[in-house]
Amino acid sequence: MTSIALCTIHSSARSIARLCQVSRSAHGTADFHSFVARYSTLRKCAFLLGGKWSFIRAGTRQMSQASPGRILLGRYGVFLAAGAAAVTGVLTAGVSHFQRAEMATKISKVEEEEGNIRERCKSFMSVPVTDIKVLEQRKDAMSARMEMLIMETQAAFCRALEEVDGGSFRVDRWSRKEGGGGISCVMQDGKVFEKAGVNVSVVFGNLTEEAAKQMRSRGKVLKGKDGKLPFCAMGVSSVIHPKNPHIPTVHFNYRYFEIEEGDGTKQWWFGGGTDLTPVYIDLEDAAHFHKTLKEACDKHHPKYYPDFKKWCDNYFYIRHRGETRGIGGIFFDDLDSPNQEEVFNFVKSCAKTVVPCYLPIVNKHLNDSFTPEEMDWQQVRRGRYVEFNLVYDRGVKFGLATPGSRIESILMSLPLTARWEYMHEPTKGTKEAEMLEVLRNPKEWI
User: Cis link prior to 338 (omega < 30° from 0)?
Assistant: First the structure.
């Protein structure tokens, strides 16, 4: 009976490997739902894939941990230990065949999505910070893949904004003698945007003690050698300040960080997010913005959106004012699990939302009329934006603490104009008061 069951599993695995593309759930476990109906023998079986058991029983999936080389069969999960060499050989052959097929699927998907580096570079606002030949040689390294992603994100967002505004971005390349550099794209005094910046930076070198302290304060245990901590940091960051007070300011930032410790081991993590800062509340805009972000998060884990939405509200909080900077979005940092590939794919999904979550809102309000009083309120809210960025923003602090950083690019996030009125308080019952109430009491938008 055991031999029959194992042979059936082996046969099914080979058939599945040939015929099916295996998708992965948020936990990294193969999802068999699409073919359970076809392979009825699998309904009461379990495979070990990537170190995790996937159980399929009557159309439902459960997850548990088990030791390699074991199979769970039947209603009560009877263990069949792989003690006999013949049984082990059959099982291993079936699973490794399945895993090879799964790996081939992943590689082909990566190649299909990420494609030829030289061809992809043709659509960028500038050639990448890292030499194209080096990127080609290191195309499988996460640093190279992330640099290509942030360059593509910059180009896609800049092109979309140029189409709406009719203007063009000034593209500045800059280098840092300590290592690396960046590409700043800024459009100023446009038809729609008073100031729009979309920056890419790729820097490396050794962390200063001040920068290392900031990371240790976040719980990072960093062990350098001879007082040095080699690092590599890269990201794309954007802040858009429109002229019309009915078009919100938007910010996004997606970044990757790598540190090499004294013993040669590496720590890595991703961070970022996208958030909206309107001058006036529009419920439809808020719902669209958050829904777009939630859909991207839900592709990877159901807890990402609620957790990162809350994190965003807490992070973009002006403590000395007792109010949030805007109506939030998502924010995360130090994200290094479940594994590098899955976190990168999540960041990629988020980066692809920057155009669809914002441009429909811009187009909706392009021709909205506004009054001088509404312009004044916009200037006051911009003042709050400045306060947050200079006092609390982690990226600004890190940039200012990093030798050789380009100050113009770091302070690109500040608006062209802002206003600080002494003891300003909006009149009760006005749209301005409604906006302030939301900022003092963040809410759920979807």
Answer: yes
